[in-house]
Amino acid sequence: MNKKVYVDVIAEFRKQELIKPLVIKWSDGRKYKVDRIVKCTSAGRIAKDAYGLLYIFMVEGKEVSLYYEEGRYGISWFVLGKGA
User: Which of 33, 43, 73, 77 is the S-S candidate for 52 at Cβ 3.0 to 4.6 Å?
Assistant: First the structure.
């Protein structure tokens, strides 16, 4: 089963475009630069009282899915990881 793994994201907020993630930072300090955004789409309802966007992009030649979640308690970024 996949669980949410929250990450820090450096992003650019533009007037005419959606939010553009630039760098992902893991809790252990590792940082990954977003090479290219492949797709950004609505992720719909992610959890109770939370909706979001799904970004699919390339990092070091690998495709990564990153979720932007906006809900009652603010915003957050997460990836899905293995776990209970």
Answer: 43
Contact 18, 30 (CB under 8 A): no
Give the integer Cα–Cα distance in Å for 57 and 67.
11
- Reference 21, options 31, 48, 30; nearest CA is 31
**For the chain, what is the radius of gyration of the CA atoms?**
13
Select from 40, 44, 50 the least CA-distant residue to 14. 40
pTM attached to this predicted model? 0.80
Q: Give the E-state strand segments of 7-73 in sequence order.
A: 8-12, 20-25, 31-33, 36-47, 50-59, 62-71
Q: How does 7-22 read in b/e, with b if 16+ C-beta sit within 10 Å?
A: bebebeeeeeeebebe
Long-range contacts for 49-56 (Cβ within 8 Å, ≥24 apart)?
53/18, 53/19, 55/21
Please give the Cα distance from 17 to 19 (Å, whole number): 7
